[in-house]
Amino acid sequence: MMHTASFLAGKRVLTVDDSSTIRTFIRGILGAYGARVDEAETGAAGLEHARSGDYDLILLDLVLPDMDGISVLREIRQTTERSA
């Protein structure tokens, strides 16, 4: 039986991970279900994407080359709270 994930169709997803293998895997899986996946390799790039886009889901690595994922999450939350 094939499962469908139609709830992903058209959703915007941001993947923040320094591993190109993981980013490629996530893009392939979620993209196959119709999600639009953006990618960032560093915390700073992830913050830039998050500030400029309206994402339904952000997948965030905890260990990034320039900052830890928890710090990225805090910055994203502060940004969204200020703009709300």
Description:
- The chain has 84 residues and is of the alpha/beta class.
- It has a single domain (9-83), classed as Response regulator (Rossmann fold, 3-Layer(aba) Sandwich), CATH 3.40.50.
- Helices cover 45% and strands 17% of the residues.
- Helix 2 runs parallel beside helix 3.
- The chain is flat and about 35 Å long.
Q: Would you count the extended β strands for me?
A: 3
**What percentage of residues falls in helices of 4 or more residues?**
40-55%
Q: What is the H/E order?
A: EHEHEH
**Count of DSSP-assigned helices:** 3
CATH architecture: 3-Layer(aba) Sandwich
SSE class: alpha/beta
Task: Please name the fourth-level CATH homologous superfamily.
Answer: Response regulator
**Shape descriptor:** flat
Text of the CATH class: Alpha Beta
Report, as a whole number of angstroms, the end-to-end distance: 42 Å
Q: Return the average pLDDT rounded to an integer.
A: 92
The largest sheet, given as strand count, sense and whether it forms a barrel, is: 3 strands, parallel
Number of domains: 1
The CATH topology comes to: Rossmann fold
Q: What value does the Rg take, in angstroms?
A: 13 Å
Strand order of the largest sheet: 2-1-3
Features of the shown structure:
3-stranded parallel β-sheet; alpha/beta; Rossmann fold; 84 residues
Write the layout of secondary structure elements.
Layout: E1 12-16, H1 20-32, E2 36-40, H2 43-52, E3 57-60, H3 69-83
Parallel strand pairs: 1-2, 1-3
Helix pairs in contact: 2-3
